[in-house]
Design goal:
The protein has 164 residues and is an all-alpha fold. It has one domain. It has helices at 7-38, 50-71, 78-100, 112-136, 154-163.
């Protein structure tokens, strides 16, 4: 029996793992929302809808990843750039939300472990997303050198930085 490498199957496997990581993020954010609701009387400045909005953004990223895989190999990088921007924005917003949860006035919310779980899952999701993008999107030369070179847009610049 010989095993053969099927790149489509590998992309679908990567998508499943990415979806699991993002589902972990959504689940932990649901728990954060519960914690925030319970402490709202003591911490009324916490925006109760924020964890729910962040979970929605994670689900939207997962849906975009499905579209990326469905589009197949050699696709133009537009969706990849959009997803890079979505991921960067989600990471930033999660980081800001975690900072809101910090120890203020001696009150610890008890959600530090949840934010740690979210951070680890987002790190894994970012790595998996980059692997999918490299595997599926047609990567162009995005060099900033040479005649007529223009700075890339924000999403493209983020992807460049991540790819090194």
């Amino acid at each position: 029996m010989t095993d053969s490498y099927d790149p489509r199957q590998a992309a679908r496997g990567d998508l499943r793992l990415l979806s699991c990581d993002l589902a972990c993020v959504c689940g932990a954010l649901t728990e954060v929302a519960t914690v925030w609701r319970r402490v709202h009387e003591c911490r009324p400045e916490l925006p109760l809808r924020l964890p729910v909005q962040l979970a929605d953004a994670a689900r939207e990223l997962a849906a975009s990843a499905e579209r990326l895989v469905e589009a197949g190999f050699g696709q133009p990088p537009d969706l990849a750039f959009s997803m890079a921007g979505q991921l960067a924005a989600l990471r930033r917003d999660i980081s800001e939300a975690a900072a809101m949860s910090g120890n203020a006035g001696g009150l610890q919310l008890g959600d530090a472990g949840l934010w740690s779980c979210i951070g680890a899952a987002m790190h894994r999701a970012g790595n998996r997303l980059l692997a999918l993008i490299v595997r599926l999107a047609r990567i162009e030369d995005w060099s900033l050198n040479g005649p007529g070179a223009e700075p890339p847009d924000q999403d493209r610049a983020w992807l460049l930085v991540q790819l090194g």
